[in-house]
Amino acid sequence: MDLDALRFGNFSQLDAAITDWEQMAKNLATLKSDARDNLQVKAAKADWAGENATVSREFIDKTAGEFGDAHTQAQTISKILADTRGELVGYRDQLNDVIHEGAKKNLTVVETGEHSFSVTMNIHPDRAAKGTTVPEHSQADVDHLRDQVQDILRKATESDTSAAEALTLIVDQAKYGFSDASYADRDSAANAIAEADRLSKILAKDPHKVTLTELNSLNEGLAKYKNDPLFAEKFATDVGPKKTLEFYAGIADPYQGYGTDPKRLEQAKLLQKNLGITLGTATLSDSEEMEDWEDTMVKLGPDRLGIDDANDPTGFGVMSNLMRFGDYDDQFLNDYGDKLVEYDKERNVKDMNPWINNWNQGDLNFYDKNDRGRDPMTGFMEALGHNPDASAQFFAQPDGTGDSVDKDSEVNDHLKYLTKDRIWLSDAYMMGGDDKVVAGHDALGHALEAATTGWAYDADPMASKDPLIPGSLDHRTALTAGVMEQVAYLYGSEDGPKMLHDQPELADSLGKMGAAYIDDIDYSLSGIGETGMDDEVFPPKYAGRANFTNDGAINFLSVLGQDETSYKTVTAAQHIYTLSALDAYPASVDGNFDKAHDAMTTGAEARGILDHARVQQAETTYTADSEEANKSLGRSGDWVKLGAGAVVAGGIAAIPLPGSTAVALVVAPLAADTIGEAVNTFIGHEVDKGIDGAEDDPTQKAQMTSHDVYTAGTEQLGQAYQTYLDSNPGAAAESDDRNWTQEINNAYNTGSGHDDQRGRAPYKD
């Protein structure tokens, strides 16, 4: 910064800009509140139909979000401007003070152009008037004044340029709309940028020469700033795509990186996660620099890096392990995935896997003993599992697909390839891993969970910011429903039982997907064939609901029921959904009695399909009524415990699967946003004590015969029916007149019959 620019600077224009931005931030705060409370919340409560249901609500949600981002950006800009203005005024005052003190010693500071200045004598001694005393000064005084002025100008320049860089980065974050980057002051933004500059210099080094201290410093910095948008973008662009891949491969390679040093191993593990999240944050920027970075990273995918580490991996081989963690740009993931699938298809040859083979020892994943990270498709699937929008786009129905999926040509090519055609192999570590587990199948399931539910597969919906906005926790859309229709078609097909048997790692994910669409499944079951489906009893909870068709719903449920895990998950979701429908249709309101009846009978039909499929598969896998078959059926009865542990809010039930972690949560819709006595009676209580206990040997669960399964099914339906009668005095007489009990029993038996006549037969080896 020039001397006179700071010394005589006029800050009036900057003051006016700050005032304008502060006022803008206040106005946008009001608009943000109005958009959320008077627009978004009301839109969520509205009964949308037709084109409005598809377009208007989505537009309103996005608009409300843009107002929030606009407020954040305006607030951040005003704070950075105000903070920078305060700093520059402070430096101006310091500069004038030191110049004034210099004058007392007969020294003056003069700008000489091109960002330079000189320190000279103020009055020449020869021209002093008679009797004038000229202040004494030494060369040390000249040097000291020069250094003081230089230091002030350096600090002022740093304040000015760092503010400009931060503001530029913030504005460039979003090509359209506004950035949600938020900073309290200039220092916060400047510190993030400076830290990115410092840490990027570590990655510029030979990874083998990076010390443990440097690695620790790198991880600490990334852990602190990994979600900071300015830091992430500057860090990623300063390092560059290729050097990023080379550095991680060099650190992660056990043969040249961490070796046998456990501390270095731990740092390498932390680097995978911290670096992955940081790069994901960086890709969210729309700046030209980051677009170039993303394009280059995709182009690097098929090529070898040309290094001695990790068997000289491809770009795919490294980047797929980093993207297991973090929130990545949707378009980047789709471009990357398109290129990866294209490359992979050309090499999908039996006994000649390009990734998992004896000569590839490039272990680049530290987070799963059953997944060494050699197959980049696995890491990419994990990335999709954490990025629901990208996953839904990647598996979206082909253009021109009708209202439902009933032929292979209506299935996304990526989905068809990954579920039916691709050769997946176990990538377990020899020490401690299970070579019977195919981690890629598990990761594929995670990607499909995200694509169909709208939630990251390991998210905790109850940690949402707005759990009480009606329907806010139901993230399904027409796009996610389109993916779900394809999944149900594939796994409900004639090949479905074999696919599930050959991909057991997908069973939990398929169960979670079925649970997430249990209302639409019931809707598809509610008609006679493809007519008469009851959208009054099973109204759409989102625009563009899934249509499985009557046959499709039966087939899909019959396959889900074959596996212990998927059976338990869907049965728990079905039970809670039916109970929530009973809550939603109190008999005191005209027309509700019939709705409650239809919800009960449809739920009974679905339960019949599931129970029959589970019994048939247990008897086919083992010997009918054998000890092993009965133990399998006993384990299946644990679904009651799952449902009893559900948490309800925002229009969904979050059902915990064994493990009690966020990863194990099932998101299931409810018929209403609020719950009443029927659901509350079930949650927190064990409905059927007969299938709850364990034997004396804790490794052995209670046993059930097929007869017990069907008995339990009818008993639980009976208890739901009784709960409705207890909650609605006077309903018993009317239910008797309409012969509810017999009709519920008939529906349950009809479900079993469907499974025999129309559903998929159990899998046979």
Q: Tell me the radius of gyration.
A: 33 Å
State the share of residues found in helices, binned by percent. Answer: 55-70%
Q: How many E strands? A: 5
Q: Ranges with pLDDT <50 over ≥5 residues?
A: 687-701
Give the number of helices.
30
Notes on the structure:
It is a single chain. The chain has 30 helices and five strands. It is mainly α and 765 residues long. Strands 3-4-5 form a three-stranded antiparallel beta sheet. A two-stranded antiparallel sheet has the order 1-2. The chain starts with a helix and ends in an 8-residue tail after the last helix. Mean pLDDT is 85; it is low at 687-701.
Quick structural gist:
The chain has 765 residues and is mainly alpha-helical.
Topology:
Elements: H1 3-7, H2 12-45, H3 50-54, H4 56-103, E1 107-113, E2 116-121, H5 139-173, H6 186-203, H7 212-225, H8 229-239, H9 241-252, H10 262-283, H11 288-300, H12 315-322, H13 330-345, H14 376-385, H15 388-394, H16 413-421, H17 439-453, H18 478-491, H19 496-502, H20 507-516, H21 518-525, H22 550-560, H23 564-584, H24 592-621, H25 627-636, H26 639-644, E3 647-649, E4 652-656, E5 665-669, H27 677-682, H28 706-727, H29 731-737, H30 740-757
Antiparallel strand pairs: 1-2, 3-4, 4-5
